[in-house]
Each structure stands twice: as C-alpha cells, then as structure tokens.
Amino acid sequence: MKIVVTGNMGYVGPLVLRRLRESHRGIELVGYDSGFFAHCLTGAQRFPESRADIQHFGDIRQVPEEVLRGADAVVHLCAISNDPMGALFEEVTLDINYRASLDLAAKAKRVGVKAFVFASSCSVYGFAEGGPRREEDALNPLTAYAKSKVFTERDLASLASDSFTVTCLRFATACGMSDRLRLDLVLNDFVAGALVSQRINILSDGTPWRPLIHVKDMARAIDWAIQRDHRDGGKYLTVNVGSDEWNYQVKDLAAAVAKLVPNVEVSVNKDAQPDKRSYRVNFDKFTKLGQGFLPSVDLQGAVVDLRDGLMTMQFRDPEFRSGEFMRLVTLRRLREVGQLSDNLMWKDRS
Q1: CB of 10 within 8 A of CB of 41?
Q2: What is the number of structural domains in the chain?
Q3: 329 in Cβ contact with 36 (< 8 Å)
Q4: pTM of whole model > 0.90?
Q5: Local structure of 203: helix, strand or coil
Q6: What letters, b where the CB count within 10 A reaches 16 and e where it falls short, cover 283-306?
Q7: For residue 44, what is the domain's CATH number?
Q8: C-alpha distances out from residue 337 to 321, 329, 331, Å
Q9: Strand pairing of 165-171 and 236-241?
Q10: Deepest of 112, 113, 207, 267, by most Cβ within 10 A of its Cβ?
C-alpha cells in the first residue's frame, strides 16, 4: 500500500505518519509539504519525516501528478490552518484550502488513486444554537478558514465514484502533544499558560462550546478513512469526527487544566463580547462507522500529555504567544525576512 500525505510537516502530520507506519506492514509513505513549519520541532526524539519513505518539498498549488502516481490513497492535511491566518491571508486561504484541494483530488483521481481523505473541520457549523450539530444540519461558516472547508466538501462530492472514494473528516478542535506542537489551539494554550505563568486567561466569558479531539485520535480516524469501503458510508462521505463526551464549554477546559497543573488561577472576561464560534457536535455517525478507530484519549489524558510533554521540553517561555509555536507568527516572520511572498510562496529555493 502506498499513501501520500500532504501537509505532513505540520501539527497532525507526524502523528499520522507514526500511526500508519505502525499499523500497516510494508506500507510506502510519501510526504508532500511546503516546509513552512519544518523548524518548529517540540521535543521530537527523531526527525518525524524519517518515518516517510520519500519526502517531497513543494507548494500544494503545484503538485506534480508523478508524486501521486501509484498511490492507493491521498491524505490531504495541507491547509492554512486556523482563523487568524485565514483572516490575514483570506484570498490565499481560498486558493490553498479550496482551489488547490480540488485540483489535487482531480489529479489523484486521474492517475488512479482509489481513496481521497480530506481533513475538514467542525468549524463549518460556526455559531449553532440548539442541540449538537449533525452532518445534515445547516452550516454557518463564519471565517475564511471555515468557508474554505465548506466549499471543498461541496465540490469534492462531484469527483467521488465507485473507483474513487472520498471521505471528508469534520474534525473537532485538535489538542494534544505533537512533534510540531501548536500553541494557538484552546486547550494547548491553556496548558502552556498554566505552566509558564500559573494563569489561564479566558478571553471570552467562558460559555462558548467547543468539541475537542486528541491528535492521536485524529490519526486513528484517518487510518480508518483510508481503509473505508464505499459500501460502508457511500462513495462520498462527510462525517463529524470526535466524541460526544468531548463537547465542552471553554470554562470547563480551563477548570480541567487547573486541576492537573498546581497553583493555577483562572480568570474569565465577564465583559467580553459574545464569541460567535460556539457549537456542540453529534458524533453518532462516526461512532457507528468507525468501530475500532474511535477516540481513546479523554480530556484528562490530553492535559497530562501536554503538561508532561512541555515539562520534558523545559518549556518556560512566558511570551510563547509571540513565538514560533504560533503558526501565524511564524508565517509573518518568514514574510518579514523576505522568505515568503504575499501569496505565501517561497521566494528563493536556492
């Protein structure tokens, strides 16, 4: 089996390579990444891409068909990966997350790839009052990032066929330790703040809902999607990926961290404007289809994982929100020093 993983040098990719290498004997793993965050390693004991047989460096908008030829599946992780980056690079976000994703899928189908796995997001639900959102419920994307996921899901449906299975995984908000940790995610930020300053500052009133999933469990779900037969869910499937037990209000996440990191003070901004990004999600469909690959890490385990991982790194930076573990900060610095163009392409490959 040959698998191509795009965006494998980000936050989730190292866990995906590790999972696939461990669970499939004789697998050939091919990575494709721009390398924007290659230097942002966090406590890695080995270069994560050493688990790939081949690592390509290139722009997702310019993937040669030869990279995809002979692959059984493509796992598409590559994206401008959060709301702040999407706000600053709105048109580039649509170009990379939407147009390039469709082009990649079309190329994959053309060269005979059998399965295409797209990393989507529960952020497509935006602000959702009432009960937990199901896949067939109305979408309310509030940001460029969320809109790009909606557009890509919609247009991937037309490419699916009996010989080309498409699976769109609407992931809950990621959390947990990685060889390339992001600290611009809610739980990860809370744990880092608790360790370096003994404080968790909730910028909202703490009431918005967030479904979460550990990066290890994201990798498990991707492993399932690669193997999914179109008779089990259809040739085109969009599915929420997470666990009903992981629907939390932000204030509850902070409280969970405070229980596991000593002497932490939690502050809530009671005067904050309402956070429109608030939604609970129903995961019944994945619970039914993904037997054997369902989430296994709970909230306490995720907090301990982050706490211990950061402590092993001797992480002590009180200014971490201005550091390289914030993806937007890294992109800005690469542009400031003249490495990246305004449309986020490397200026000099020499």
Answers
A1: no
A2: 1
A3: no
A4: yes
A5: coil
A6: bebbeebbeebbbebebeebbbbb
A7: 3.40.50.720
A8: 19, 12, 10
A9: parallel
A10: 113
Rounded Cα distance between 155 and 98, Å, is 9
Q: Confirm whether 346 is domain-assigned.
A: no
Cβ atoms of residues 295 and 246 within 8 Å: yes
Question: What is the residue type of 210?
Answer: R
Backbone angles phi, psi at 262, to 5 degrees: -65, 150
Residue 345 lies in a domain: no
Q: What is the pLDDT of residues 242-270, one digit of tens each?
A: 999 999 999 999 999 999 999 999 998 87
Could you give the 3-state DSSP secondary structure of residue 200?
strand
Q: How far apart are CA 182 and CA 52, in angstroms?
A: 22
114 in a domain, yes or no? yes
Q: Output the DSSP codes for 122-142.
A: GGGG-B--SSPBPTTSPP---
Torsion of CA 7, 13, 19, 24, to 10 degrees: 20
Question: Which range marks the domain in which residue 108 is found?
Answer: 2-336
The type of residue at 21 is R
Return d(Cα 265, Cα 275) in angstroms, integer. Answer: 22
Rounded Cα distance between 65 and 216, Å, is 30
Q: What is the DSSP string of 209-239?
A: EEEEEEHHHHHHHHHHHHH--TTTT-SEEEE
Distances (CA, A) of 130 to 124, 253, 278, 281, 303: 16, 21, 11, 11, 28
**Phi, psi for residue 128 in degrees, rounded to 5:** -135, 105
Longest dimension (CA), the chain: 57
In a domain, 110, yes or no: yes
Q: Which residues of the chain have pLDDT under 50?
A: 350
